[in-house]
Specification:
The chain has five helices and 15 strands. It is of the alpha+beta class.
């Protein structure tokens, strides 16, 4: 919980203010999750502060909510290209992705349990960035990521808006975005590292190096044979 609050502070998600007249607060709650790896072993315990978005009013607290998500068919096509052209395949994870989105609306949220400031119990958190649980959080994150990555020379795919391509001479790199999971498939290691450095500069990232497990799918490679396999065994075993 302390780590989550620290992340909120570092991202400048809110400022504590007196609630203006005729303004309502959006509630919030803590959500606790156990993150596991592909074999079901515990990786870490996670606490996430989530806004109670169900209390938001359309047209007042939010307008657009739509944000695209990469299709599973697109992932399979990219994996086929990785196997065929023997591309480098790496994975990155965006830490607290939704906190990067900028808010267009004025939203006040109640202070989180366990972290209410003494002497300012009646004050509210005026949100400056989007937060998990808000109706528009996913959309605002997508817009921020899209604007950032296209400024680096990536072009959005016409069919799948969450797949981006950058060509540099004879080298190329494909980026697949699945909410906060990023897959990078590149014909050149230098271009791959250049992209990673750019992403690290703009967002808090976790570099997971060679991709082995993404969105619940295990990836197996035998580069000498030009083979790549996908498995959802872990997901099936847990179901």
């Amino acid at each position: 919980m302390k780590e989550e609050i620290k992340s909120m502070d570092q991202n400048g998600v809110w400022e504590l203010v007196e609630l203006p007249d005729n303004c309502k607060r959006v509630g919030c709650k803590w959500v606790f999750k156990t993150k596991r790896d592909s074999t079901g072993n515990i990786e870490r315990y996670k606490a996430r502060l989530v806004a109670k978005g169900f209390s938001q009013k359309e047209g007042i607290d939010y307008n657009e909510t739509f944000s695209p998500v990469s299709r599973k068919d697109s992932l399979r096509i990219v994996m086929a290209l990785v196997a065929h052209y023997d591309l480098e395949l790496h994975q990155m994870d965006v830490k607290t992705a939704f906190l990067n989105g900028d808010l267009d609306e004025e939203i006040y949220m109640e202070q989180p349990d366990g972290f209410i400031e003494k002497g300012k119990e009646s004050w509210a958190c005026k949100l400056k960035k989007s937060i998990y649980g808000l109706k528009q959080a996913s959309r605002q994150w997508y817009i921020k990521f899209h604007d950032t990555i296209t400024s680096f020379g990536f072009k959005e795919n016409a069919v799948d808006q969450c797949i981006y391509l950058k060509i540099s001479g004879s080298k190329f790199i494909i980026l697949v975005l699945y909410v906060d999971d990023i897959l990078l498939a590149s014909s050149d290691l230098g271009l791959l590292h250049e992209t990673k450095i750019f992403l690290n500069k703009n967002f808090k990232m976790v570099d997971m190096n060679e991709a082995a497990y993404v969105i619940g799918i295990e990836i197996f490679r035998d580069r000498s044979q030009g083979l790549l396999g996908l498995s959802q065994k872990g997901y099936i075993n847990r179901s």
